[in-house]
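Researcher: Next entry in the queue.
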Amino acid sequence: MTDLQARLRADLITARKARDSATTAVLRSTLAAISNAEALPVAEASPTSDGPIAGAATGVGTTEAVRRALTDDDIRAIISIEQTERMSAATDLESHGAGEKAEQLRAEAELLAAYI
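Model: Structure for this entry, 116 residues:
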């Protein structure tokens, strides 16, 4: 885990303790995007017919997934994408008359700017 990831997780805990639902939601979705970026594609395994469930993987370590190691720069890029998506969605919502939701998305994007 990088320093930036640790900071995001610590800030998430602080937001949860403060019952700040908006900040909690933004940090959770950002950490989820980072986790998704760390995931590697699952290799196609040949199904087995042994055991009680056909096609199930068995043995020690079969449920562990290999993760990609991200740098702080990689994480900043992911956060930047999250921020850009929120700003784009805010623009779209505002053009459709949903100004309140657009302001909420802009506030979320501003919160993410602190991590870039």
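Model: The CA atoms of residues 6 and 110 lie 20 Å apart.
Researcher: Noted, moving on.
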